[in-house]
Structure formats: structure tokens, C-alpha cells
Design goal:
The complex is a heterotrimer of chains A (444), B (368) and C (373). Chain A is an all-alpha fold and 444 residues long. In chain A, 70% of the residues lie in helices and 0% in strands. Chain B has helices at 16-29, 45-48, 56-82, 99-122, 131-134, 137-140, 159-168, 188-215, 224-227, 230-233, 258-261, 272-290, 314-317, 321-330, 344-361, and strands spanning 8-13, 33-37, 146-151, 172-177. The chains are: A mainly alpha (444), B alpha+beta (368), C mainly alpha (373).
Chain lengths: 444, 368, 373
């Protein structure tokens, strides 16, 4: 943190964004992302109307882009929780400056992810069947189904992320209220900030709640992608039934999430002029996390490949051969290259601190992690146990359109966030500024 | 509350150290309750004001455990007791697969306790009407200044003395917070308006419900499910068991024509237990088409094309138990063959239950 | 006292070989080898983690971790001797393996020379890492050379790779291949979680011991709390990995996997499995849940002792089912416990005399002592 920065200046810098008219570039970006979003929604409407036959899914590849995108987006969300919760518990004060942005990305990613299971079931209007409501027929949902676990895990994750994010936002909203010039704005922000006053009583409960939420969110974030991995790993499909899946999915999620954080933050800090708040140090640390995760991904790949051989199970061995050869072998190599090899550049400090290098790596990781899910889902399915039921999968334009739309939706929300709410947790940053505490209670 | 009495007097500090030093001095004066408003948590302030630790941790633990128990109990009751599901060859009473949801619900309960418990229960938020919120100081005290207030505790409050005391400890921009205005009465028109609005909302909800149940399922794309080719490809209803196989507890059924089955008698006694079983089988399997009273009024709209049999009609009242048994085993018209999915006992129990429904709808004086 | 316990335990252990047969002897030996290894490796991981992340809270505790990591030396010696256990305990090393097609197919990995080479390579890597971290730190006491910290910082990422690969090898070789048909690729992570937990617990016990003797006086609530928090976190992490592996195998119900759990859930082993869940998760979890418990060294020591005991039970649960359907626990096990605990205590006693109780030469020590939550 820049030494000269004062609390007032910080407020002026960060909280004034929602009060100003966005620049033309913002409108241009917004037009672009919201068009992509609209395209996606139109195609979703088309899918719902026509049925999921308009996708490329077939038998045996019953899960394809829908589930790939779901796993991909839900994974992106994990970095936000990691930054906001786990790093808070580990007392890494550098998280403060980037926590808010990452948490917002978590929310948006989970919202994006939530679309996919909803449309993948084909008849979204019957989704209430998933809820255990008492009914005349005396039926209950199957709670032993991992897909049901998903419903609980993802909805809990979303609810908890919203709560965590909102509670973090509350004092900042109170600060925005303090700045409000018009009565209407003041009133709206009073409501949004719930009339937060910042008395020591309130802070005492608040700090306790924040730590508790962080602890709970940490456990939750481990569980969410583990539950997503259970969708696969509890089955008997070769390549899916691997005991390493839960931790491996969690690491992959954090990995992809951090890449997205680096991608968005390195653009946002430049465009919003926040280079002195979101510093190169933050990005470098995020890049170190990416490097670490990349090594863990390499470990997981190696471990899985070894186990596939070691199991001496011909089906598993066949599936793993299909990952790197056969119709979709190229996808496996993309995943390995982008996830394991390219991030190794970050062993060099120069690469970790280079704007270009980090964007290249982050893009590679984003693509690589998408392809990893493609590998896991499509390649494991297209060669079934019986060669007679093997079938090649080909996505349709609708599949691609919805994928594009999901990016549009996510970035539209990110763009809206940058102009509506404080992008930096000013309260938390203020509390750790030099001189903010009596007798230097905190070390920044 | 006395009219016109000030809520309190408030002053601003720019240095947390000065704020902390001022607190014990003001508390010693005993002019009123000392309160602070700060833009971020100032460490040591809670101790200086003599606050106790937050009880939130204990609340979260209790609610978390309650969440675990709740999740276990509802899963166990639904999937092991009330509607036992056999999946993947697992014992329906096994607990292992309940753990993920138990964990999620624990976290859900615990986080909502932590978040909403903190906001609503402990911090009494939302609170949109508070003198501090209307004060001039609230602007600075949510930015980078620290407000310290002496607030009225009893009936007597000496605002001037409080002002002086704040001045002495070095507070700036001293401000007197006016007392709360008396609560306003809610006018009658507003209440009437609300009631009328509620009535309109109820009517709209009723209309929407009717639309949802009667019309929604027949609109495209909802009706597309009738046109899908795989509906027939997958066979309507249950799959027949593999040729020549006999499932445990399900004896093969020899007859081809209902007349052959006419003479079969119901081997089960008409006990409460049997009727209970019959009701369960009926609810799970028959009710969706034949309706809860077996009168052919389904809970799903008839718009899907089928006209399910009215088991309360003269024709069905006259059928023998054996003929009903035959229909269950072989199906009739649009009704698929369902019997392979039931045990012998379940088939006969549901017939008892259908009889009970019929008798209930055609009760004689003697039944009363 | 310790010496007597070691000697007596050693006698009983040696007697086991002749009275109860080599199987039971080597099974006990293997468990205790893994016990020492995991505590040492876990403590070394804690040291390396500090260098890697630049964490400050653990600097005042680091010497204790380095001292515990010295257990790697007796552990490596025990591992080399344990190579004699291969034909006794491991079905793939016996002559009957050739008749078992599945095991024979794995001979490319599961053969004695390659196994021994891997074991020796791992031992070498650990000892080198120990020299770099612990040895370098001791030298820094005298030289106050900041370059040694820098060297440790540079080596730390490589140690992470070493740690990942060697725990994987240990898990697949020493543990999983006891049942060579069985495979589970999370077993490396499982063993790592147990190791780190054991290392943390051993460090906690050491710190508690020193604090009781009036050493490490500058250590405050904040440091102890952080240690307790890690202990708590890894109790949960271990449970997560252990349950995930169990759930997946239980759910899929594949004969080549699930027999491993079936062995451990029948008869008396069922009780051991339940005890493992209770001692390794439920009790430490609730004992460490309150904030005060994590920061109170006296309570933390009890939990740490419990965690080490539970870790022993975990290793016992991993290894002993190969001996048969009944979990043996009698004088041989007590003898081995006496011998290896005695050896560890003697080793630690020696280590506690070497160098200062804190890394006084580390430039980060002042910052570490000032650490506040």
C-alpha cells in the first residue's frame, strides 16, 4: 500500500466511481458483453423451447458443453472465496485490496454456473421437483444422488457468498451513504447499508461474524467443488471414478479462478487507474498461487495417469489413452500444455511481474481449464464400455453461442459491479493503513 | 421519552489514540452513556467501553449442529423411512451418502446464524431511524473521523455539560443530536389501501394458480414432451422384466384375459396395516392419473390426452378383485403394465385400498 | 527413565520376532517407521512452508519444527531396515506373486530392486532437505548470515515438489502395495495430510515442553493460536480426504477397491475404524473448535498428544489388516511403542540441546516475535 494514501483519499478514489458517469470505453465494453449475453439468453430460450436436442449431446455423450460450462464457471468462483476467506484466516493483509473484486467475481461466476444445470435438465419449469416438498404422491427426491448434493452445495455456496459479500460491503455502503449528495441517494444507501452506524458494539459482533463466515466459507469452498467432483467420481465411468477427484477439482477450481482474477484485475487496475491500490505485488502473489496450483495440477495429472496404469484395469487404461490420443487427443494436450507447462513461466520473477506475460498465462489457464473439463467429460463418455455404443461428439452452434453468452453474462455483471459498488474493500484497507490503529495494532 | 430532550452530544476525533484516551475520562464523568461511531473497527475501543465478547460463536455452533441434525433427520426420514429408495444397491438406511448434504446444511445454518444473527439479533439492524444517521458527523465518521457521543440515559440529561466535557477531551465539530420525534400514527387510508392491495394480490395469485395448473402444461414448449419420439422408444410405463426371469417376491402371472382372473380372491386381510401399504402404493403409482379419490380426476391436467378411468364409475365398481389385479398386471388402454414393479402384497393391498376409496364415495347409511 | 523404556521396549520388540513371528514384527516396525517419518516430514514441511510463503508467525516456532524434523534421520534408518520386510509383508515380493496375473502385471513398478531404489532416493532427498533447512538454520545461529535464509527461501519451492512426490511414493509403496490389487490415487494426499498433522502435533508437544521448562518465554497467545489453528485446519483436511476416499469407494462398490474397506469394517476392525473416526476427527475437532482452546498451550498439548495417538491408530489401521481379520494389540505393540517413543525422545533430547530455542540468526525473527493476529 502506498504510504501517503490517507483514508479520505482512498474513499475519494474508490467510492467516487459509482457517482461518476462511466467513460465511453466502459459503454463500448458493456455493449459488447451485453450483446454476447443477449445472444446467449436468446439461444437458451431457443433451447428451452425446442428441447436440448439442439445441442450436440448424444448417446453416450449425455453431458457435454452444459456440464463443462457449469464446472468451469463454478470453479472460477472458488478463487474469490479463497482470497476473501482463506487468506483472511491466514492473516495475509495483502488480500484486502483485491478481496472485494474477487468476491464479486465469485458471485457472478456462481450465477453464471447456475444457469447450466438449470437448462441442462431440459424442462426448467419442473425444477421445483428437486425441492423436498410434501406432495400428494408421497414421493421424495433421492438424496443419495450426487446431483442432489450439487443442488444443495451450489445453492448453499451462492447464499453464503452473497451473505459474505454483502456483510463485507455493509460498512462501505455506509461510507457511500456518508458521501451521498442527494437525499434520494442517501435514502437508498441508508436502506442498503441497513442503517449501519459503526458503534464498537456493532463492530465487535461484525468482526466475530466475519471471521466465523470466513471459516465456514473455507470449509464450504472445499466441499463445493468436491461435491461437483462427486457427480463424476461416484460413478463407474472409467476416468471419472478416481479417488483423487475431490481435492484435484478443488485445486483446479482455485487455479482457474486465480487466472480469471489476474485477468480481470490486471485490466481493471489499468482502466480504473487503481495501479497504486491493486499493485503489481498483488498480481505477483496471485501469479505465485497460479504457479503453485499449476504444479499441483501436474501432480494430479501424473498421479491419475500412474493410477490408471497401476490399476491394470483395461477400461481405465483405454480412457486415459483416449485423453492424449484418438479423436480428441488434442484436447488433452491443450489441457496439459496450458495448465501444467505454460504457467511454469512464473518461476521467473520477470514473468510474474510482466503485464503481458501474466495475461498470456491467465488466458492459457482459462482455456486450459475449460479444455480439461472437456477432456474429463466428453472423452470419458464418448468411448463407453461397449465399442458398439461409441459415438463421437460434435458441439453445435447453439452450444458455442451459449458458451459465449456465459462469458457475456459474467463480464456484464463485472462491468456493472465496477460502476455501482466500491471495487475495493475501503473499510478493510483503511483499518490496516499506517496509523489507523492505536499503537500499531496491525501490521500491513 | 421527554419531548425536546436531546438524544446526545457528539464530537469528532481525527486520531484513534486521542479517541481511546478520551473514553475512560468521559465514562468517569457519568454524564450519560458513552458511545463511539467509527469508520472501521478501532482495536481497544470495545475494551475501553467495557464490552463483553460477542456470543456469536456459541450461537453459530448450536445452529450448525442443529443444521447437521436437521439434514440427517430429513434425509433419513424421506429416503429411509417414508419413501425408502434403493439406489446403487445401497441399503436404504445407510448414512454415508447423507453426509454431503449434512455438511452443506450445517454450513447454511451456521452462516445464516453468523450473518443474520450478527446483523439482526445482535446489532438490531436494519435500523433506519437513528439520530446519528441524520447527524452532520455521520459523513466524516464513516470516512476517516471517529465520533464519540455522550447519550442520554435517564430522564435527566445535561447537554451543555456533555458538550463541555467533550470539548475538554479534545473533540472537534461538537454537535447536539436532537431527540427522536414522536412516532407517527399510521393513517386509516393507508391501512385500507394495504388491505385492498392484499385482496387484489390474492385474486391475482388465484388466477395465476389456475392458469399454472390448467393451461401452462398444454402450452408449448411444455407440451413438446408429448411429441418427443423417445417417449415411445423407451416404452411407456415400466419395462417388462427380462424374459423368463422371476424376481423375488413377484410370482409370474399366468393369465392373458381378465375373465381368467375374475375368480382370484384377495388373499390379504383388510387390516389397517394393509390399507396403509395400499395407500402408499396408490399414492406413489396410481394417484397421478386416477386422482386422489380414484375418480379419474387427475392432479395433472387431462390435457395430455389421456382420459384416465374413473374407478368410482359403475363399470369399475362392478369389477372383481381379480379383474383389477389383471389390469394392474397387464395394463389397459393407455394404462401401462405396472404390476412387475410391485410385490404380491403390494398389488393386493392397493386393491383393498381402491375398494376402501370406492366404499367411501358410495357410503351407505350402515357405513356411518 | 527414557533409556530404560527404550531398552525394555527394544527387548520386547526383538522378542516379538521370535515369539510372534516376523510378520507381526515387521508390521509393527513399518507402522513406527511411518510414524517417525510422518512426524519428521510434517515438521520439515512446516519449516519449508514458512520459507515459501514468508510467513512470520511461525519464525519463533521454527527451531522446534526443525528439531522435530530431525526425526527423519532415525526414520530413514528404520526405512532402510524395513526393506527386509518386503518379502514378509508384501504379497508382490513373495514367490506366489508370479501366479497372480493382476499382481504380476504390476511387476514393472512393484519389484524389489526398484522399490529399494525409490526408498533410498526418497531417504536421500529428505536428508538433503533436512540439512538445507535445519542445518542451515543452526549455522545461521552463529553466522547471522541472511544469505542462509535466502537459500532456504529459494530451496523451499523445490522441497514442495520433493514433498509431493515422496509422500506419493511412500503412500503407494509402503502403504498401498500391502494390498497390491488395491489402488486409490488420493492415498498420497491422505498420507500427506496425516504427516503434516503429525508434524504439527509433534511441534506443539515440543513447544509445550520447552515453554513448561521456562524456555521460549517470548512466545505469546498469537503464535500458539496460529499453531492451534493449523492443527485444527489439518484435522479437518485429513477427515475430508479420508471421508472422500471412503465415500467414493463405498458408493462405486467396485470389488477391486471396496475389499480394502470391507477388511476394515468387519469384526473387531469395525471398532478400530469407528475409533479412528472418533479420535482422528470428532474429538480433536470439537476440542479445537473454541477460540480459547487453540491459543491455550496447556490444552493444545493434550489435543496434540491425542492427535499423535490417532495418527498412530491411522497407520495401524492402514498396515495391520494385512495380518488378518483380528486387530492384534498386546505386549509386542507396547514394546515397539516403548522402543520407538524412547528413541524419539532420546533423539529429541539431544536435539533440544543444539543451538538456541529460536532461530536467533534469522532476520525475520523480530517481526515474527511481534506477530499479532
Amino acid at each position: 500500500m502506498a504510504e501517503a494514501l490517507s483514508a479520505a483519499a482512498l474513499d475519494e478514489r474508490v467510492l467516487s466511481f459509482p457517482e461518476r458517469r462511466p467513460p465511453a470505453a466502459w459503454f463500448a465494453a458493456f455493449a459488447f458483453t451485453s450483446s454476447a449475453m443477449l445472444l446467449g439468453f436468446a439461444l437458451i430460450g431457443y433451447t428451452v423451447y425446442m428441447g436440448i436436442g439442439v445441442w450436440g449431446n448424444n448417446r453416450p455423450v449425455g453431458w457435454a458443453f452444459d456440464i463443462i460450462n457449469f464446472v468451469f464457471w463454478i470453479g472460477i468462483g472458488h478463487a474469490g472465496t479463497l482470497i476473501s476467506a482463506i487468506l483472511l484466516l491466514m492473516r495475509a493483509p495483502w488480500r484486502n485490496a483485491i478481496a472485494r473484486f474477487s468476491e464479486a467475481m465469485t458471485l457472478f461466476a456462481v450465477m453464471t454456473a447456475g444457469i447450466f444445470p438449470a437448462i441442462h435438465v431440459g424442462r426448467p419449469w419442473l425444477e421445483f421437483w428437486l425441492a423436498p416438498y410434501p406432495n400428494q404422491r408421497g414421493l421424495w427426491p433421492n438424496f443419495r444422488s450426487p446431483l442432489m448434493w450439487d443442488v444443495f452445495a451450489v445453492s448453499t455456496y451462492f447464499a453464503v457468498s452473497v451473505l459474505f459479500w454483502y456483510i463485507g460491503l455493509l460498512p462501505d455502503l455506509a461510507s457511500m451513504r456518508g458521501r451521498a449528495q442527494t437525499p434520494l441517494r442517501r435514502m437508498a444507501l441508508t436502506v442498503l447499508s441497513l442503517g449501519w452506524r459503526g458503534t464498537p458494539q456493532q463492530w465487535r459482533h461484525y468482526e466475530k461474524a466475519y471471521i466465523l463466515l470466513a471459516g465456514l466459507a473455507t470449509g464450504l469452498v472445499l466441499s463445493v467443488h468436491s461435491v461437483v467432483s462427486f457427480d463424476f467420481a461416484t460413478s463407474l465411468v472409467p476416468g471419472w471414478h478416481m479417488t483423487l477427484f475431490p481435492p484435484y477439482f478443488v485445486v483446479g477450481a482455485i487455479f482457474a479462478g486465480f487466472a480469471m482474477v489476474v485477468l480481470v484485475l490486471s485490466a481493471a487496475r489499468r482502466l480504473m487507474g487503481l495501479e497504486d491500490l491493486i499493485t503489481m505485488r498483488h498480481l505477483e502473489l496471485a501469479n505465485k498461487v497460479i504457479l503453485g496450483c499449476s504444479c499441483l495440477m501436474g501432480y494430479s495429472y501424473a498421479c491419475e495417469a500412474f493410477t490408471a496404469w497401476y490399476s491394470m484395469n483395461p477400461y481405465i487404461q483405454h480412457t486415459f489413452m483416449q485423453y492424449v490420443s484418438g479423436t480428441y487427443g488434442w484436447a488433452g494436450w491443450i489441457a496439459i500444455t496450458c495448465n501444467v507447462l505454460v504457467p511454469q513461466l512464473f518461476w521467473w520473477r520477470r514473468m510474474r511481474t510482466s503485464q503481458t506475460a501474466m495475461i498470456v498465462v491467465a488466458l492459457a489457464v482459462t482455456a486450459g481449464m475449460w479444455f480439461e473439463r472437456f477432456v474429463i467429460i466428453v472423452i470419458s463418455l464418448y468411448h463407453d464400455f461397449l465399442p458398439s455404443s461409441w459415438h463421437v461428439y460434435q458441439p453445435t452452434l447453439v452450444d458455442f453461442g451459449i458458451l459465449l453468452g456465459s462469458f457475456g453474462f459474467f463480464f456484464t455483471l463485472v462491468l456493472l459491479f465496477t460502476r455501482l459498488l466500491p471495487v475495493i474493500a475501503t473499510t478493510e484497507v483503511k483499518a490496516t493503513l499506517p496509523g489507523a490503529q492505536h499503537e500499531g495494532g496491525h501490521h500491513g | 421519552m421527554a419531548e425536546g430532550r436531546a438524544f446526545g452530544v457528539l464530537g469528532l476525533f481525527s486520531d484513534p489514540a486521542l479517541l481511546l484516551a478520551a473514553v475512560p475520562k468521559l465514562r468517569a464523568r457519568g454524564l450519560g452513556r458513552v458511545q463511539a461511531y467509527t469508520p472501521y473497527p478501532v482495536h481497544g475501543l470495545g475494551e475501553a467501553l467495557g464490552l463483553r465478547r460477542s456470543p456469536l460463536g456459541g450461537m453459530v455452533l448450536v445452529m450448525g449442529l442443529l443444521g447437521t441434525a436437521t439434514a440427517f433427520l430429513f434425509q433419513w426420514w424421506m429416503n429411509s423411512v417414508d419413501y425408502p429408495l434403493f439406489t446403487g444397491g445401497k441399503d436404504p438406511s445407510s448414512w454415508q451418502a447423507f453426509v454431503p448434504i449434512m455438511f452443506e446444511v450445517t454450513v447454511l445454518f451456521a452462516t445464516f446464524t453468523a450473518g443474520l444473527g450478527m446483523l439482526v439479533l445482535l446489532n438490531k439492524l436494519p435500523a433506519f431511524w437513528h439520530p446519528f444517521l441524520d447527524s452532520e458527523a455521520s459523513r466524516a465518521a464513516t470516512r476517516d473521523r471517529f465520533a464519540l457521543a455522550i447519550e442520554a440515559e435517564g430522564e435527566v440529561f445535561d447537554a451543555a455539560a456533555a458538550e463541555a466535557a467533550l470539548m475538554v477531551v479534545g473533540a472537534g465539530s461538537i454537535e447536539v443530536l436532537p431527540g427522536l420525534p414522536p412516532p407517527r400514527r399510521v393513517p386509516l387510508e393507508t391501512l385500507l389501501g394495504l388491505a385492498a392491495g392484499g385482496a387484489v394480490a390474492c385474486c391475482l395469485a388465484g388466477a395465476a394458480m389456475y392458469w399454472g395448473v390448467k393451461l401452462f402444461p398444454v402450452l408449448p414448449p411444455m407440451s413438446h414432451m408429448l411429441a418427443q419420439p423417445r417417449l415411445d422408444a423407451q416404452q411407456r410405463g415400466r419395462r417388462a422384466p427380462a424374459e423368463g426371469s422371476v424376481a423375488r417376491g413377484r410370482l409370474p402371472y399366468p393369465f392373458e384375459k381378465p375373465e381368467q382372473a375374475r375368480g382370484l380372491g384377495n388373499p390379504l386381510p383388510r387390516t389397517e396395516e394393509v390399507l396403509r401399504l395400499g395407500r402408499k402404493v396408490f399414492a406413489h403409482n396410481c394417484l397421478i392419473c386416477h386422482g386422489p379419490l380414484a375418480d379419474g380426476t387427475p392432479i395433472l391436467t387431462a390435457a395430455y390426452g389421456g382420459r384416465p378411468a374413473n374407478l368410482q364409475s359403475r363399470k369399475y365398481l362392478g369389477l372383481s378383485d381379480g379383474e383389477i389385479y389383471h389390469t394392474i398386471m397387464k395394463g389397459e388402454n393407455a394404462m401401462p403394465r405396472l404390476g412387475d414393479g410391485f410385490t404380491e402384497d403390494e398389488r393386493w393391498a392397493v386393491i383393498h385400498y381402491i375398494r376402501a376409496l370406492q366404499r367411501a364415495q358410495h357410503a351407505k347409511d350402515g357405513d356411518l | 527413565m527414557t533409556l530404560a523404556m527404550t531398552a525394555l521396549g527394544g527387548l520386547a520388540a526383538a522378542a516379538t520376532f521370535f515369539v510372534c513371528g516376523p510378520q507381526r514384527f515387521w508390521a509393527n516396525w513399518l507402522v513406527w517407521m511411518l510414524m517417525l517419518l510422518s512426524a519428521g516430514l510434517g515438521a520439515l514441511f512446516l519449516t519449508a512452508l514458512e520459507h515459501l510463503t514468508g510467513a512470520r508467525w511461525s519464525v519463533p516456532l521454527r527451531r522446534s519444527a526443525e528439531r522435530v524434523s530431525g526425526l527423519l534421520v532415525p526414520a530413514c534408518a528404520a526405512a532402510v531396515l524395513a526393506l527386509f520386510a518386503l518379502p514378509v509383508l508384501y504379497p508382490w515380493a513373495g514367490p506366489e506373486a508370479a501366479h497372480h496375473p493382476l499382481i504380476a502385471a504390476k511387476a514393472g513398478w512393484l519389484n524389489v530392486p526398484f522399490f529399494a531404489a525409490r526408498a533410498l532416493a526418497c531417504a536421500a532427498l529428505w536428508l538433503v532437505s533436512w540439512r538445507v533447512f535445519a542445518g542451515g538454520s543452526l549455522r545461521q545461529d552463529r553466522s547471522r548470515d541472511a544469505a542462509l535464509s535466502e537459500r532456504a527461501r529459494r530451496y523451499a519451492p523445490f522441497f514442495m515438489v520433493v514433498m509431493g512426490l515422496t509422500t506419493l511414493v511412500v503412500a503407494f509403496d509402503w502403504v498401498s502395495s500391502l494390498s497390491p490389487e488395491w489402488y486409490s490415487d488420493v492415498i498420497g494426499v491422505y498420507l500427506f495430510a496425516g504427516s503434516f498433522l503429525a508434524g504439527l502435533a509433534a511441534v506443539t508437544l515440543t513447544v509445550g515442553h520447552l515453554k513448561e521448562r521456562g524456555r521460549l518465554t517470548e512466545l505469546r497467545f498469537d503464535h500458539v493460536y496460529s499453531l492451534g489453528a493449523w492443527l485444527f485446519a489439518f484435522t479437518v483436511f485429513w477427515s475430508y480426504i479420508a471421508f472422500a476416499q471412503y465415500l467414493l469407494m463405498w458408493y462405486a462398490d467396485l470389488p477391486e477397491e471396496v475389499f480394502w474397506y470391507a477388511q476394515r469394517s468387519r469384526g473387531a476392525w469395525r471398532g478400530v475404524s469407528l475409533a479412528l473416526g472418533l479420535l482422528h476427527f470428532v474429538i480433536p475437532f470439537f476440542a479445537l473448535l473454541p477460540r480459547d482452546a487453540k491459543g491455550d498451550l496447556r490444552r493444545l498439548r493434550w489435543v496434540a498428544a491425542l492427535v499423535l495417538g490417532a495418527h498412530f491408530l491411522d497407520l495401524y489401521w492402514l498396515v495391520f489388516p494385512v495380518l488378518g481379520a483380528r486387530p492384534p494389540f498386546s505386549w509386542p505393540e507396547l514394546g515397539f511403542a516403548g522402543f520407538f517413543i524412547g528413541v524419539s525422545l532420546l533423539w529429541m533430547r539431544r536435539a533440544l540441546r543444539q543451538g538456541a530455542d529460536m532461530p536467533v540468526g534469522d532476520p525475520g525473527l523480530a517481526e515474527g516475535l511481534a506477530f499479532k493476529l
